[in-house]
């Protein structure tokens, strides 16, 4: 391979497993993925490689202790960047990762880049998001790269989409976010009372934030629809991805609601993978919406 498209250096997209991009999409678009790890006691699994969502939620139900997660090392990223450069020496790499406020994954990528500074054109991006909140950015950038867009055009698209993606999620219980240190104890306590469902999102700093609370899942989903309308998505054609953690009925209920209120040009589903699922727990459902 000469690493060029129409005489231009080829743009290559790298992400990590927490983007929750289905494997068929990664393969179709040539997206490279550096995985995180999940630990159940003494057993270590590689996210989206040696353990997939269904098996993870089975293990979670069987386990008396919560699993833990760990980020890739700088060497993991270094090996990935070297692999790409061995295939295409003049490749331009865009590496998009889980919010730096949630994980050291982004910092590992930055350190790996510093070891290749003189040899490679690599841009590392803190998505300030999680799951398909940035999986959506990665897929759009990979589609643009495949269509022959320049690196600058791909980066511009990532930043534009990051600013324009609406995302909300509901968890069955805040126990997992609380124990993982991803949300405050007070919010976890309130969420356990009287079937109160906190509506969560990710703020501009890339941290999980509680938007408001609703009584029961149906009211929470209806409120998410209202919040998306307030966000200006009702008068535009939109692309929608529903992500769920072993909760197909909830995902279908939310998608049905979304389709009845918005001009949905594209709707698809993805599973919340093992690493994100460790922190959100089973039963989580999320919506990611982007104007098209």
Question: How would you describe what is shown here?
Answer:
- The protein is α/β, with parallel strands linked by helices.
- 40% of the residues lie in helices and 27% in strands.
- The protein contains 11 helices and 15 strands.
- It has helices spanning 23-29, 53-62, 74-87, 105-114, 132-146, 151-164, 175-179, 185-191, 217-230, 248-261, 274-280, and strands at 4-5, 8-9, 11-16, 32-34, 37-40, 43-46, 68-70, 92-97, 121-126, 166-170, 196-202, 208-215, 237-244, 263-271, 285-291.
- The mean pLDDT is 92.
Q: Give the mean pLDDT.
A: 92
Computed over alpha carbons, the radius of gyration is 19 Å
Number of helices: 11
- Helical percent range? 40-55%
Strand content: 25-35%
Helix and strand pattern: EEEHEEEHEHEHEHHEHHEEHEHEHE
N-C termini distance:
33 Å
Low-confidence region ranges: none
Biggest sheet, strands in spatial order? Answer: 12-11-10-15-13-14
Structural class: alpha/beta
Write a compact overview of the structure shown.
The protein has 292 residues and is of the alpha/beta class. It has helices at residues 23-29, 53-62, 74-87, 105-114, 132-146, 151-164, 175-179, 185-191, 217-230, 248-261, 274-280; strands spanning 4-5, 8-9, 11-16, 32-34, 37-40, 43-46, 68-70, 92-97, 121-126, 166-170, 196-202, 208-215, 237-244, 263-271, 285-291.
Summarize this structure as a short list of keywords or feature phrases.
single chain, 292 residues, alpha/beta, 6-stranded mixed β-sheet, 4-stranded parallel β-sheet, 40% helix, 27% strand, globular
């Amino acid at each position: 391979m000469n690493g060029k498209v129409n005489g231009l250096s080829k743009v290559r997209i790298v992400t990590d497993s927490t983007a929750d991009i289905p494997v068929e999409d990664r393969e179709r678009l040539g997206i490279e993925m550096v995985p995180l790890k999940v630990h159940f006691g003494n057993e270590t699994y590689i996210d989206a490689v040696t353990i997939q969502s269904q098996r993870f939620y089975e293990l979670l139900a069987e386990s008396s202790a919560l699993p833990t997660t760990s980020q890739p090392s700088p060497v993991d990223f270094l090996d990935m960047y070297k692999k790409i450069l061995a295939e295409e020496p003049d490749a331009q790499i865009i590496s998009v990762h889980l919010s730096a406020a949630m994980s050291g994954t982004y910092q590992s990528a930055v350190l790996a880049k510093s070891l290749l500074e003189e040899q490679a054109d690599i841009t590392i991006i803190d998505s300030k998001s999680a799951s398909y909140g940035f999986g959506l950015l990665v897929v759009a950038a990979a589609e643009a790269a495949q269509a022959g867009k320049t690196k600058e055009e791909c980066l511009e698209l990532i930043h534009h989409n990051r600013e324009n993606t609406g995302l909300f999620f509901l968890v069955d219980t805040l126990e997992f976010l609380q124990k993982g240190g991803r949300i405050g104890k007070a919010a976890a306590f309130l969420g356990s009372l009287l079937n109160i469902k906190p509506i969560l999102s990710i703020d501009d700093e890339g941290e999980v934030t509680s938007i408001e609370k609703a009584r029961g899942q149906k009211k929470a989903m209806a409120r998410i629809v209202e919040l998306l309308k307030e966000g200006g998505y009702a008068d535009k054609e939109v692309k929608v991805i529903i992500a769920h953690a072993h909760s197909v009925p909830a995902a279908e209920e939310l998608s049905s609601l979304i389709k009845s209120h918005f001009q949905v040009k594209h709707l698809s589903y993805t599973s919340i993978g093992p690493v994100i699922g460790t922190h959100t727990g089973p039963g989580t459902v999320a919506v990611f919406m982007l104007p098209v």
